[in-house]
Structure formats: C-alpha cells, structure tokens
Records
---
Amino acid sequence: MLTLPELAERLGTDVVHARTMVKEGKLLAVRDKDNVLVVPAEQLDGAEPVKHLVPVLTLLADARYSPEEALRWLTTPDDSLPGTPLQALHENRATEVKRRAQALGF
C-alpha cells in the first residue's frame, strides 16, 4: 500500500496530481487502519496504472461497489481466471475481467 506522497513519488509527480488520479477514478484508494488514504501498489505497472484498470474501476463503481469492496473483488483469487482479476489485468487478460465486472451490475 502506498500513501499519496509515496504514490506521487512513484509516478514522478506531485501529491495533488496523485490525489486527482484517485478522485477521477484512475486509481483505487482505501483508508487503512489509521484512516490514512492508501493506494494498492499492485494497481501500477511501473509508473502508470495497469492497462484496462480504469474501465474496470468504472464498471465496479457502476455496480455500486465501495472502494473496499472493489479492492476485495480485484484481489480475490478466482480459479476460473486463474488468479486474481488484478493479476489478469497485469497479464493482458482484460476482456474476461471486464466481462465479469460488467456482470456484477446485473
């Protein structure tokens, strides 16, 4: 988990831009046990969000998933994928992840 200053450093930007990325739904952020806003580092591929993450986050938000529920869904292993949805995005297997996320809204 990265704090916003850590995220900004990893992205090579400032904290305002990092916060804007979270606000615009480009990255998922949750509150840790100390109520600090943190971003799971697994959402990044180097200094960029994982390809196809934004549309999946949008689909999860449209299905009324809270950030915590979305994070749980993205990081829960699924033998039929195999792996987690987030791992599948890293491996360019986004079509199935998007299909599954879209089905959550129905």
---
Amino acid sequence: MRAFGVLVLLVGCGSGEVLRPNLVLVTVDTLRADHLSCYGHFRETSPRLDELAAEGVVFERAYAVMGTTLPSHLSIMTGLYPHQHGFVANHGAMKGSFRSSEGRETLAEALRATGYNTAAFVSGPTVSRATGLNTGFAHFDEHAHPDPKTLADTSRRSRETTDAAIQWLESEPSQPFFLWVHYWDPHEPNIPAEPYASAFKSDAQLEALIDERRIKPERLAQLFSQKELARLFAPELYPALHAGEDVDLPAIGRAQIRELLNAYDGDVLATDASFGRVLDCLRGKGLYEEALIVFTADHGQALGQHDWLEHGRIQGENLHVPFVLRPPGANHVAAGRKGRVVSAVDLAPTLLKFLPSLAGSPFARQLSGADALDPGFLRNFAFSQRSVRVRDWETATDCDGLKFALTTGDWKFYLRPEGPDELYDLRRDPKEWNDVAADHSELTETLRRIIEDLLAERPHSPEGQSGDSQAARDFARMLEQIGYTGK
C-alpha cells in the first residue's frame, strides 16, 4: 500500500508525468568518457551504464568546467562556473569550506526547501564534509580514516559506498528524495580489487591506443617527480617517498603504461558494477521507473596523453566526461544520443525540466547553464579553466600555466594569460596536436572575447574564510597525503 500511495502522490492524474520524482545523481571521480563502452571504448567497461544509456539520453560531448574535483562538483551542484561559486582549486577549502549565499545555493538546498529528503554517500576527501559539499544534505555519509598511512586509506572503494547507499534505500527513506552517490575508484592510484584487477589484458588494441595517444613513457619519467611517479606506478612506495626516504623506483616504460591503462579500466568496471547494484536496489524497491537518474563525472584523466598522467589540466581527455540522463516515467523525452556541446553547468538546468517544484525558485534564477534537452538550446561552446595551482615539482617549461578554454563543435581554443593563445581544429585534429592559432587570428579574437565576457559575469571571491580551523587543517593534511600540495 505504501508504494501505491507514493505512486499516486508522484504521478500526475492520467498524464503519466512524475511531478516530484526521486532524483538519483551518480558522480564518478576522474572518469574520462572515452573509457566507457557506451562512449566508444574498445573494451566493455560499462555494461550497466550501457543499459541505462539505452533507455535514456546520452550527451556525447559533455565537458567539465575544470579538471579538478571540488570546483567541478560545486559547478554540478550550483549550476555556476568556478569563478562564480568562488572555488578554483581543491585547496580553496583549506581556507574554509563552501558556504552558500544568495545566488550560490546548491541543488540539495533547493530541493530540501521544497520537501525533498536529501542524502549523500561520498568516497573521497575532496568531496568530504570539510569542503562544504554536504550543504543541503540531511544525511551525509563520508569515508573517514583517523590516521591514513597509505593512499588507499584516504578514500573508500565504490563497493563500500554502495553498501552504505543501499542500506539507506533499504531503510524506506521518506519520499521524494535526492540521493547523491559519489565514486572514487578511477582516481589514481589505480589498484582495483579482483575480479576487476585481472579483467583486462594487454592486446593489439591497447598497443594501438597507446600509439594513437602518443604516450611517451620516457618523457613522463623525465617530467614527473619521483613522488608523483610512485603515486601512479608504485603506490606501495609512496609512503616512504612522502616521508623523505630514499627509494629506487622501477623504470617507467611501455609495460608500466599498459599496466596503468589496464588497472584504470578495471577500476572503471568496478565502478560500473557498483552503479548497477544501485539500479538493482531501485528496481527491487519499485523506485526505478519513476526515478530521475543521472550519471556523470567531475573530470577525466590524462593517462599519459599530452605528457601528463593525472588531471587538473584542460586538454580534451581531462574535460570530456559522461553525461547520461534517464528521465522519470512517461515524460515524452525520447531516448537517444545528443551531439551538441554541453557543460557541467547545464546539468542542473536540465534536471529542472523534471523538477517543477523548483520552477521560478532562487536556485533556478542563479543558473549559468541551460536546459541541454531544450530544442532551443543555442550556446555552442563549453567553458573551462585550469585549476589555480602549481605543484613545486612543475618547472616553468613543464607547467602549461593558467589557461581558460572554449570547446566548440569544431574548435578548441585556449586563452593563455601567461603565453600565446592556442587553437585546434577538432574536425581534423581531435586529439589537439597542432596549434593553428596563427592561421585564424579573427576567430581566436572572437573566442577570446567570449571568455573575457564570461569571466566578467558574476565573479565571486569567498569572504571571511580562514584556514585556522581544525577541519581546515585536517583537510590540508589529507590533501598533502594524497599528493595535492601546491600554491
């Protein structure tokens, strides 16, 4: 009887339209779209997401606002660009956590104000309570390790996070609810558990992928510090290096690149399996059909491409993310694939299409993005910026400095205050190898003006923040533990 009563409450009379759907948002840390089978990867890394994608809408060209976790998640949650919500690096939370204000609300706050039950289950330190991402969530379940000794201690696997989320769902939470589940597994270091650790083996297709991406292990060994290399290729040695001990790292060659890619795909598959368990639980509780389900990522991962191993930078491999949306009930949105360029700031406006309780709300008015499902969606670019952080081991020649980027249907433009601008023709050069800015001066000037205008829109600087609190000090210590040190 309870399930029937909820159904009557949520579904419009005779229309089949879900008026107050349960919202399930899944974000995956460090997940580049092109390592998912539903986005064309040659391996079957995402069978459960593929099932959802077949029922919903796949945005083929969705881009993060930054290659960095906290700013990107705040943009997903607020519909604002980083310069508008005020966090342009993870270490911004070392000075104080995000605090909402007028024009800077979170989706969770807005939904909670309309009667939604809000719950979050997160897996990594850069989305923890210390960052302020708990804002608006009545229930916030995070990984907490009192004294992390290894990199693995600073986060939890998707399996554990899923266990906690399913336990909450099994508790018969009041409805409607907004459930956010965050996974960390694809983030370095990639140490998947079995059976995922041995799920993928090196083969000719992997060799071709390494060549296509022009990954040069010898170049990476020169550019990265010993600690950074250990974090990616020998995490068991990282604690000793972090403590200042002399450690001999194994040579970094093509074999290590193969292992890294196999392990990364194993972690993607493990995440997909955990996501599938959430879907199965929703089905078992009779909640699946009428739920609004969204799957996305905060940013991608370089994995050796463009002489970079991690994220933070804003080449395509660090920005191209999945965005899959399964609408609730009979809402007349056809399943399929959308080729338009969309941004993370478009996620919240797109959700509002199915959340009529937020129509006309202050949250709806603050959004910088637009409904990506609207046939009248006109913006033809995604705006991104590089994390405002320079690591001590990055030399002036290695670091690509502060950058802003526009990704359009055909072009990728970088505005570089510290150097010459760059332009890439994505039709002929989708991997961004050949800078053609010198041949298109009028176009580069137009794109530069678009970025300058965007940066002038509602910039925000957090006020009154201090890094003196114990929470801020603990967060700084955790960032240092996982290698996120910098200025």
